Amino acid sequence: MTQDASDDLIRRVLGEVRTIAVVGASPNPARPSFYVARFLAERGYDVIPINPGQAGGEIDGRPVYARLMDAPRPIHMVEVFRASEHLAAVVEETLALAPLPRALWTQLDVRDDAATARAEAAGLDVIVDRCPKIEIPRLGIPPRG
Question: What is the pTM of this model?
Answer without folding.
Answer: 0.96
